[in-house]
Amino acid sequence: MAKKKTVLKIQYDSPVILTFALLCLGALLANYLTDGWTNQHLFCVYRSSFYDPLTYVRFFGHVLGHADMVHFFSNICLLLVLGPVVESRYGSVNVLWSIIITALVTGLVQFIFFPGTGLLGASGIVFMMIFMSSISGIRGGNIPVTLIFVAIIYLGQEVSAMITQNDQTSQLTHIIGGICGIACGAMMAKKKR
Questions:
Q1: What are residue 139's DSSP bridge partners?
Q2: Of these four, 15, 51, 57, 107, which has the most CB atoms within 10 Å of its CB?
Q3: Model-level pTM?
């Protein structure tokens, strides 16, 4: 009896997550090639005139921009670990909407409350994914202990860092991303039930 040969194929298994990661890589390369112009004008949200059409692009585009390779890798590695699990659990369309909502909310908070600084990077999206993956265990109204631990560890760490550290990290964006992840995940879980 002849054995069937197994053929391995490359599969684009998480289209939203993989496309998002590739867009981030493209934004990073464009930033290097334009000597910072693209981050300044497309991929960094900051207070600017409502008459500037790029203001509206930056409300969403800031999640694609990264300052350098270290910043890019620290966000994208975790995104590529969590994202496919979240996308398979909630579906590609729901994950895309969650990314759009989180980008807009974090962009607006930065624009309104921090006029003197800029924000770029996918860390808010990563924190959204962390919480969406944790909240996916809700069944029958029971809150999973893992969600409680994730909330205590991740959000507690970010609140502590906001108080004790003065660095270039936007802990508030991480917290808002986590809250968006909880809200989006809960709404989707409720809709599923």
A1: 142
A2: 107
A3: 0.87
- d(Cα 166, Cα 96) in Å, to the nearest integer? 32
Distances (CA, A) of 175 to 119, 150, 155: 14, 12, 6
DSSP assignment string, 108-151: HHHHHH-TT--B-SSHHHHHHHHHHHHHTT-BTTBPPHHHHHHI
H-helix or E-strand spanning residue 5: none
Residues 106 and 124 sit within 8 Å (Cβ to Cβ): yes
Question: Which is more confident, 4 or 94?
Answer: 94
Secondary structure of residue 45 in the 3-state scheme:
strand
- The pLDDT mean for the chain works out to 88
Q: pLDDT band at 18, cuts 50/70/90?
A: very high
Q: How far is CA 98 from CA 91, 153, 175, in A?
A: 11, 22, 15
